[in-house]
Amino acid sequence: MQALPVIGITMGDPASIGPEIAIKALLEQEIYNQCKPLLVGDAAVFQHIIDQLQLPATINVIKHVSEAKFTLGKIDVYDLGMTNIADLKFGEISAECGEASFQAVKKVIELALDGQLDATVTGPINKKSINEAGHHYAGHTEIYAHYTNTKKYAMLLVEDKMKVIHVSTHVSLRQACDNVKKERIVQVTELLRNGMIQLGETNLKIGIAGLNPHAGDSGLFGTEEATDIQPAVDELLAAGYDVEGPVPPDTMFAKAATGYYGGVVAMYHDQGHIPFKLAGFKWNAEKGQMDSVKGVNITMGLPIIRTSVDHGTAFEIAGKGIASHDAMVLAIESAVKLSRYKKANTW
């Protein structure tokens, strides 16, 4: 057990499915075979979920990582005591829940920077709730970048054969187009390749998407491919990267899903997220719910490891016991892989 990495997992928004999927994931024996997991957030919220859903677990409340037992069925919770259970309403936006979820994220960052955690995993937060609490961030990625003083970072999505990094994420579409610059494309491609290696990917061929329909079609539908994307591809090829592009995105992602590319570069948020979620999210129309939600969000470029579920708070099903914890399990497993690589390559 001494060799297993210690993984801190945030509860996410207390009114979301975050606490539920965290508890469910830590009821899997395989998680304890791979790591030493502990939850960071409010013990009262996790206990409320256990009681409401009648889950086979108890809580070990701790105030220091050294107090954790890492025992299946007796879940360690680094308690911040932020949430008043009497006021908690599942599925509702609130400043109180925003504050609780934000403080959990801030705490795992502090613990990881202090060397008490080998990696961090985040549950889903509600951006409006954290902003109502006075924390004006677009999401987890920006919070981590701020508190680790990181300037060069990017969002990497991982699910089976699909690995997608983004030139830009939480900005308007207009700004996203303006952000398609050669320097940024080179930077995120370098981060993608590093992430692929750290995750054990052997196929290092990278597809780089065009921005415009048909990748601009020789300038008929836009010039960004000629002015910035192709020059980035040329620079990467000269540096020894196995890259291809600019590739029309409607064909690039079809090829990526088969494993032709080990990873791909998307120019903006929805260009990457839509095909990624089509691959990993399985909707059951008859039941009116997701059968499976798979996908991991990794922030590349940080001095600490951060993975996350790649889905939202799912307020509409919070507290009902039907949330899939597949993505949380995958996020924890990815954090373990990254921590092992980091340990093996740190002297």
Write the layout of secondary structure elements.
Blueprint: E1 6-10, H1 18-25, H2 29-34, E2 36-41, H3 43-53, E3 58-62, E4 74-79, H4 95-113, E5 119-122, H5 127-132, H6 140-147, E6 154-159, E7 162-166, H7 173-178, H8 182-198, E8 206-209, H9 224-238, E9 243-247, H10 249-256, E10 263-266, H11 269-280, E11 281-284, E12 289-293, E13 296-300, E14 306-309, H12 326-344
Parallel strand pairs: 1-2, 1-5, 2-4, 3-4, 5-14, 7-10, 8-9, 8-10
Antiparallel strand pairs: 6-7, 6-13, 11-12, 13-14
Helix pairs in contact: 4-6, 8-9
Low-confidence segments, given as residue ranges, are none
How confident overall, as mean pLDDT?
A: 93
Report the CATH superfamily of the largest domain.
Isopropylmalate Dehydrogenase
Note the gap between the termini.
22 Å
Structural classification: alpha/beta
Short synopsis of the structure:
The chain is an alpha/beta fold and 347 residues long. It contains twelve helices and 14 strands.
3D structure, described in words:
It is a single chain. The chain has 347 residues and is an alpha/beta fold. It has 2 domains: 6-150 and 309-344, Isopropylmalate Dehydrogenase, CATH 3.40.718.10; 154-276, 3-Layer(aba) Sandwich (Isopropylmalate Dehydrogenase). The chain contains 12 helices and 14 strands. The strands form 2 sheets. The protein has a 12-stranded mixed beta sheet, sandwiched between helices. A two-stranded antiparallel sheet has the order 11-12. α4 (95-113) crosses α6 and α8 (182-198) packs across α9. The two termini are 22 Å apart. The model has no long low-confidence stretch (mean pLDDT 93).
